[in-house]
Request: fold
Amino acid sequence: MGTIWQPALIDGQGPKYQSVVSSIRQGIEAGDLKPGDKLPPVRDLAWKLSITPGTVARAYTILTDEGILNAEVGRGTFVAPPHHTRVSDAPIEIDVVPHDAEEDGEQYNVSLFSPHLPCVGQDKLIRQLMVQVAEDPPSGVMHYPSRAGARPARRAVLRWLEGTPLGPLGDKDIVLCHGGQNAVLMVLQSILEGRRPTVLIEELAYPGFRRAAEMLRADVVPVAMDANGILPDAFEQAMRSHDAQVLCTSPEVHNPTGGFTPLARREEIARIARKYDVQILEDDCYRMGVNRAPSYRMLAPERGWYVSSIAKTVTPALRFGFAIAPEGKWSVLRRNAEHSFFGLATPMSDVAALLLMHPQIDTLTEETRRAFNIYVQSAVNILGGYDLSWREDVPFLWLRLPMGWRAGAFCQAAEAVGVQIRSAEEFVCRDARAPHAVRMAVNAGVSLGSFEAAITRLCQLLDNPPEQISV
Reply:
């Protein structure tokens, strides 16, 4: 089974997964499990102990979250080196997201609410860089953040964006933010004027656009769209009816449908934006591969704003994002960020700079993309008989529900069988009609078997709609 370690049979009271955790801890403390040793596959250990695979997976996840084990996609689970364990005598409370399993009649949940990245080695790298920064912080720890001190991080973003068609770009054009949502808010603060400005969004859109606009007391107007994004005629009609100041859009990876806006459509949108002098905010946080068309900042350099982050490609934990202003407007964006929070914490800026410049980062992001692809393909194989939109390099799927299901009722039924998903209602304006559809994010933080079990439960619901349609 990959190691000479033999676990004790599960006996006694208490949750079985805790007994597995204790058994592995005892094996490490006794020296039977050494750093680098491979643990038995989940199903093999479950068979030996006469428990469910989900119970073993839950135990492995607890120890992985603590840094005691390392889970490597496609290779297995290993005992981590000693410096990965937590050094503390105080008890540690761990918020565990239960995995798909049934133990003593209890069913555990799998959240497909937001994408969960796989650990492909970026966790080890981030820990190493944190230690490096802690021992010798390039920006120090006794000063306010400064633009000069953040220059290495901005230059690292430039390197990260190599190949992205953004037009002329220097590090001064980049403003660092606390993740993509913070970047959206910073851009809107830089654009909006007047007591009651208007923001245009796609009729199905990332909820963060709407929330940021509402925080700034702006009216939000949805614009009709099709599979290729915003309809130019609908955009122009909205501009005639509303004195909008900015259009928010996600042309590379539309959230929630996963759609893509082709070049011809983007050029028409840019032409209308010039005609009515409206700004364009492009959210590129979900793109994991190469661009398929030029950004709005390249197509309309005088009005194209761009935001992104590393949350969907490296980790969401660092809350590291950035915004890029149109040509000549970087000072407004920078001023808004500095007046709001002075700048990113210097240790975090230092870690991000080292991370994005590290020679392993491209390999790690490619491994992340490959792992997500495995999960996406698996979901497609299970749900392929239904009206599903998906892309190999996008960590979510869009499911149009069959006759007999409404989005709200389906989400409630899914939660009842231990699967959390997002209803289409979350992606529309408050008074708009939502399609009967749901978004399922890829949770690569659970085992592939647990993910497949969750998708299978959704498929069983789809195969058996309720006799009465919920209104």
Observations:
- Residues 84-107 have pLDDT under 50 and may be disordered.
- Residues 362-463 form a domain with the Aspartate Aminotransferase, domain 1 fold (CATH 3.90.1150.10).
